[in-house]
Write a structure and sequence with these properties.
With 156 residues, the chain is mainly α. The protein has one domain (2-142). Helix content is 83%, strand content 0%. It is built from six helices and no strands. The protein has helices spanning 2-56, 61-68, 70-81, 83-106, 114-138, 143-147. α1 packs antiparallel against α2 (61-68), α1 (2-56) runs antiparallel to α4 (83-106) and α4 (83-106) runs antiparallel to α5. The N and C termini lie far apart (66 Å). The relative contact order is 0.13.
């Protein structure tokens, strides 16, 4: 009976951890998606505004030039901060955590064993490790690429 109580407590604690992490990942995916949409809309809006001001008004060329420089700057920021790729990463993390929670809640016998709960926890650790390696490989801001000459490395 003691092991059953311990398994129940661990199951409840793991369920809470998975739920909390899933919610954070889902929110981060949502935020990164909308940051990307907002930045790209702002870039497009600045471009259209510069064109309208240039064609249809007597606005100073300095003002129009100032507005016209914004789209490439915004696009540079959006491309280098990789909001859409981060959205995808967070969404895949959320989906993975949701899958683990489903296994924990609906695919284990009642009562689950400590080993079965530990297996789900290990799978969560593997998911986190795999996703962290992907983040480090693909999503970190790499200043060397910003300052490199002709696509080479910054150390040339």
């Amino acid at each position: 009976m003691e092991q059953s109580d311990q398994a129940s407590r661990r199951k409840t604690a793991l369920e809470k951890e998975l739920s909390d992490e899933e919610k954070r990942a889902s929110f981060s995916a949502y935020a990164n998606h909308w940051l990307s949409v907002i930045l790209m809309t702002a870039a497009l809006g600045c471009s259209v505004l510069a064109a309208i001001l240039g064609f249809f008004t007597e606005t100073s060329s300095k003002v129009i030039g100032g507005i016209a420089i914004l789209p490439p700057l915004i696009a540079f920021i959006a491309a280098n901060l990789k909001f859409e790729a981060k959205n995808s990463w967070h969404a895949r993390r959320s989906d993975g955590l949701s899958s683990l929670k489903s296994r924990l809640l609906y695919q284990l016998p009642e009562p689950p064993t400590l080993d079965q709960i530990a297996a789900i926890s290990r799978d969560r650790d593997e998911l986190e490790s795999k996703l962290q390696a992907e983040w480090d490989r693909n999503l970190l801001l790499k200043w060397s690429g910003v300052f490199s000459h002709r696509g080479g490395s910054a150390s040339r």
